[in-house]
Amino acid sequence: MQKVSVLGAGAWGSTMAQVLCDAGNEVLIWGRDSNVVSEINSTHTNTKYLDTNVLPSQVRATTDINEVFAYSHYLILAIPAQTLREKLIEWKPLFKSESTIVSTLKGIETSTLLRMTEVIEEVTGSKRIALITGPNLANELILRQPAGAVVAAHSQALAEEVRTLFRNPYYRVYTSVDVLGCELSGAIKSVIALAVGISIGMEFGENTQAMLITRGLNEVARLCAAHGADPLSAAGLAGMGDLVASCGSALSRNRTFGEVLGRSGSMDYAREHVAKTVEGVASSNAILEIAHRVGVEVPVIEAVAEIVSGNLTPVAALERLMSITTASENFIK
Question: Distance between CA 78 and CA 9 in Å, rounded?
């Protein structure tokens, strides 16, 4: 049993706290909203983010950032990806040399094109960094429905150490040393899920979805390979697993946003009616730029980036996508 600190009291942070507690750990959550923190401590619920689901009574919460850093050297980050750098700079004096920092974030920092673990290392200087990723929808995981994930770190020993923190009877956790491949896969899947959602909003069916998922996965694998990562990471839980869940579930923020966007053809309308953080929207242009830097063609990602930027309508983007010359199908070429 370990003491573990979770930074972030939203749906995902609270769900991770439950997973960690069910794995036998003592968990303290940090959150900014005093009402949320008070509710977690008094009734063990977080109705703002998790409806009426009840958290384990052992989970505690605090608004005191000093308390949560002092509580444990295991720090689980569950905050919005695009605010990561700002918060890490604010918290930098609190990190200790023995801290183990675990990212649960999926995205690319738009201003630098850095992955989340790269941002963590750049700001904190820590070498004890891992990430956990996979097909994990908070609304299902909070119900303790069986799920899988992968912990990636630069050493097998650290990956196994972090895996032990999370593994419980309903949460099956694997390990990997391909941090780059797992992290890229998790970030890119958000953009592909947007594409699938857009197609659903345009009232296209399963054939269109299957094409976008399959060719999108190909783009993930080719981008991984171009960066020296293992392209087969795209075929695992971090890639295909997460892609299937995000594209197939109405619980997925990216897919839901895409549906509204495809139906309305308007980014403004979609932003107004989907009031949640949508990482695929934030990351699409950054991921496209990453692809351009290594000379990889990513037509599905490019189509989404053009729609999000307002340069193409969903109809025009799909027409352009369908006009691209095809070649032999290959997983990474």
Answer: 8
Give the distance from CA 265 to its chain's centroid.
Answer: 25
CA–CA separation, 131 vs 150, rounded Å? 8
Query: Strand, coil or helix: what is 64?
Result: coil
pTM of the model: 0.93
Predicted confidence at residue 282, as pLDDT, reads 86
Identify which of 5, 18, 87, 91 has the alpha carbon closest to the alpha carbon of residue 49: 18
Q: What separation in angstroms does the CA of 151 have from each of 18, 157, 202, 260?
A: 17, 11, 36, 33
35-73 residue pLDDT tens: 999 999 999 999 999 999 999 999 999 999 999 999 999
Give the chain's residues under pLDDT 50: none
List, by residue number, the catalytic residues. Answer: 189
Domains and CATH numbers, the chain: 3-177 (3.40.50.720), 180-323 (1.10.1040.10)
Q: How many helices (H) and strands (E) does the chain have?
A: 16, 8
